Amino acid sequence: MNRVAHIPSLFWILALLLGFQLSTSAQTIQFSVHVSSSLNATKDQDMDFATLISGSGLTEINLGDSGMGVFAITGNEELDVIVTMTSAANLHHTGASTDLIPFTLEFAYANRGANDVNQAVVVTGGTARFQMRKRESGPAGAPPTPPSAHHTPTEATAYIYIYGSMNVGVIDGGNYTGNVDLSVTYD
Predict the structure, then answer these.
(1) Contact present, 135 and 18 (Cβ < 8 Å)
(2) Does domain 24-186 have CATH number 3.30.1360?
């Protein structure tokens, strides 16, 4: 009879130990966007790795997956832009823990006038230079007409897709954060 009384106690001790080992963590990646004054950028969709479990290993969000981040950049269709993305190599625990979650990010862009990942051009490295709207005829000819009371340049929207991976080892539960800087300027 004494043995039966210890089984529930042992069960609860194991449940508590497993609960601490499998505690979940939320991953937050803050995006800051810096754009030239005559450009406009909006975040259309957050990047979402969802809630991951300690020790879950490699989790990937690929180009076209529902968890990728999406930004829209609107500006003069006749001009080129330079987009640069920088980020730390790790997410950091927001509390007292020194645990880190390694992560990598990549980006692609679509500049044919539609938010269509199938038209995306994958960027190698952290910087891309591209036309606001893809010109089928090649590079621009004469410089564009500057804005004035008699001329308003036509605007186009290009889309930036951010995707990547993180590798969650055995870490303390809690929130982990990191910053990603996306800079957009006219060339």
Answers:
(1) no
(2) no
* 90-93 vs 174-186, strand pairing mode: antiparallel
Max Cα-Cα span within the chain: 94
pLDDT of residue 7: 32
The pLDDT assigned to 9 comes to: 32
Q: Give the pLDDT confidence score for residue 140 in this predicted structure.
A: 61
Q: What is the pLDDT of residue 120?
A: 97
Q: Angle at the Cα of 98 (from 96 to 99), degrees rounded to 5?
A: 120
What residue segments make up the domains of the chain, in order of their start?
Answer: 24-186
Among residues 84, 80, 70, the alpha carbon closest in space to that of 34 is found at 84
Q: Say if CB 142 and CB 130 are below 8 A apart.
A: no
Provide φ and ψ at 3, rounded to 5°.
Answer: -60, -40
CA distances from 73 to 36, 131, 186 (A): 11, 12, 11
Distance between CA atoms of residues 32 and 46, nearest Å: 12
Euclidean distance between the first and the last CA atom of the chain, given in angstroms as a whole number: 81
Is pTM beyond 0.90? Reply is no
As a whole number of angstroms, the distance between CA 76 and CA 113 comes to 12
**DSSP 8-state symbol, 2:** H
